[in-house]
Amino acid sequence: MKYRTADYYKEFHCVGGICEDSCCENWEIDLDEASMKRYLKEKGDFGKRLKENTNVHAKQFVLNGTRCPFLNDKNLCDIFIEIGEEALCETCTNFPRHVEEFDNLKEVSLTMSCPEVSRIMLSKTQKISFICNEGTDEDYGLKHIEPVKSFAFWKRGNSNKLDKPLYCMLYDVREYIFETLQNRNVPIEKRAAKVLILGYEIQQFIDSKDYGKITDKLNVYKKEENREWLEQYFNEHTKKSAQKEEWMRQILNMHEGLETIKEEWATLLSDGMKIMHGSENLRARLLTEGLLNNEVSENTDSFLRDYTISYQEFIHYYHEAEYEFEHILVYYIFNYFLGAAYDHDAYTKVKFAVVSYLVILELDVALWLKQKKEFLFEDQVLVAHAYSKEVEHSFNNFESLQLVLSAHPILDINHILIALLS
After folding, report:
1. Which of 334, 359, 360, 347 is closest to 406 using CA atoms?
2. DSSP state, 104?
3. Who's near 334: CB < 8 A, 6+ residues apart?
4. Which residue in 181, 207, 265, 314 is a FRET match for 16, CA 20 to 30 A apart?
5. What single string gives the DSSP state of each residue in 119-160?
6. Separation between Cα atoms, residue 379 and residue 207, nearest integer Å
7. Binning pLDDT at 50, 70 and 90, where does residue 277 land?
8. Residue 343: closest CA among 87, 156, 74
């Protein structure tokens, strides 16, 4: 079997008890059959503890509040300590890994829902590359795992088979998407816009099963003369700031409707909504909390009122770290785009990447304002991993968001382009 991973994959090691957001909290822990049988056969006092804390019917551990019952006071795993690393269930062994399989190839990624993964990935100043080698699951830290082969449940047929001709086409498209997203001579928002338009156009050929035209379209994008047409397309969607503000408000409202995995996320989202609105209620709260004083400068006050100016100043403020947003876009494309070879929904996956970037950026701006225009690398780690945990590690949240992305009228190409380019 071949395995493709990001170049930083083997840098990851669980930091255990010093992790600021343990993966042993805030979500249910599903047990595979083999692990559950082993736990139920365990003898002695620890075996008794295992039995008492296992819900056999649900195939889950019984949580202690929001914590795994085997997460001790030092935030270390008692199963690991008492009976060894090999006894960890598949869920615990594999996290934070995500796998998609294409015949004799597994693409294995590390998800940003783990703060240490976010920290490793976002710290890279160089362009992310991908490595493909022969190997085994054990070589890549995996215990048996069912690869994710489809997300667009509303497009699933009776079978869920790999469309090999489409896979080959999409692989080439994805390579071009990576090249486009990593072209640092172009502002990140224009890179994302170009990829969005490409995704929209090739989806039409996927729907009509006219796969040969995907290559033709890709060749058009690679030609220099295509730039003038794209610039004209971009210009039609710029200088529409009021529309962008309303659109982002609705997008954040959609995210508020999702299941909350962690209260930290709810706080980030709430602050994003309040600051985006530029409300006097926010200003009053900031004054009450001592984050602003009564002699706040006219300049700062204007940022609380003026969404567009605040947004643009943050872009300028954080320009040197623009590569972080590049990595986020590349991450979501790598994780999900080729899955369209199963469900034939490439455009939704491109939209997922672009909207994820826009939401993370929006919450970055909010946190920067809340912190009196200071935003550090660890703040980006916080926002990116909280977003990932919310949307990638709740089945209901993920499926709901994919359905909204595929069908909601405010998530059409024109609205997203306005949000990118205004």
Report:
1. 347
2. T
3. 6, 107, 109, 130, 174, 178
4. 265
5. HHHHT--SPP-EEEEE--TGGGT--S--------GGG--S--
6. 41
7. low
8. 156
Whats the size of the chain, residue-wise? 422
Cα–Cα distance between 406 and 154 in angstroms, integer? 10
Closest CA to 36 of 94, 90, 93: 90
**Residue whose token pair is 């609205």:** 415
> In the predicted model, is pLDDT for residue 303 greater than 50?
no
Residue 18 has pLDDT above 50, yes or no: yes
Asked whether residue 332 carries a pLDDT value surpassing 60, the answer given is: yes
Q: Where are the beta strands (DSSP E) in 181-331?
A: none
User: Which run of H or of E encompasses 34?
Assistant: helix 33-41
Distance of CA 327 to the CA centre of its chain: 11
Other Cβ atoms less than 10 A from the Cβ of 365: the count is 24
**Confidence bin at 278 (pLDDT 50/70/90):** low
Torsion-angle region of residue 75: left (phi > 0), alpha (psi -120 to 50) or beta?
Answer: left
Q: Which residue has the tokens 């509040």?
A: 65
CB 281 within 8 A of CB 376: no
Q: Which residue has the tokens 């706080």?
A: 267
Question: Looking at the predicted structure, is the pLDDT value of residue 225 above 70?
Answer: no
CA neighbor of 35 nearest in space, from 80, 73, 74, 1: 80
Q: What is the pLDDT of residue 93?
A: 86
d(CA 36, CA 298): 62
pLDDT interval class at 304 (50, 70, 90): very low
User: How far apart are the C-alpha atoms of 315 and 365, rounded to whole Å?
Assistant: 9
Q: Omega before 187 cis (within 30°)?
A: no
What is the rounded average pLDDT for all residues in the chain? 86
What tokens were used for 362?
């929006």
Residue 291 has pLDDT above 60, yes or no: no
pLDDT score of 209: 93
Paired tokens of 146:
């069912």
